[in-house]
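Meet our chain:
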Amino acid sequence: MAVRDFFTPALLLEFIDLPGPLARIRWGEKQFDEPRRSVRRLDGEPDAGCLTLWSAAPSGFRYEVEAPGGRRSGLVSWHDVHQVVNSRLTPVRYGALRAAVEAAAAHDAAYLPGPIPFRTPQMWELHFHRPWARRASELTLKAAFALDAICPPVKAQPSLF
C-alpha cells in the first residue's frame, strides 16, 4: 500500500523510466520538496479511514499510518519500490501506462481556459468544455487502470460506471 498509493500514473511512468538506483534516489528526494504527502485509507482497506503519511528518509521514504492503536511506521527504500513495481511490470502493462499517460497529457494541453473562439460562455461549455471534461475523465480512468495493473490496490475498487 505504501508503494501503490504513493504514485499517480504519470509519477509511476517517470519512476519506471529512471536509468538506475542513483537516479531513483535523486528522483525520490525531489518528490519531497513539497509538504508531506498524505491520504486516507479507503473502506475495505486495512485501517479504513486512517491517515497515511509519506516523508523523506535516506534512500527512500518513511510510511506512517495513524491507526486507532497508535502510529505505525516503516522505512521503504527506492530499491524496494523498484522491486515491487518490476515484479508486475510487463511490456504490455508498460505500453498501456505510457499510452494512457501521454494521451492524458496531450488532452490536458489542448484545454481552452475560456470562451475565446466561441460566441458565448454557454456555447463554450456546451461545445467544448463538457466534451473535453468527459474525455479527460475517460483518459484519467484509463491511466488509473494502467497503474492498477502494475501496482494493484489492496482491495479492488468498483468501477465508477
Q: What stands out?
A: Residues 121-150 form the longest helix (30 residues). The radius of gyration is 19 Å.
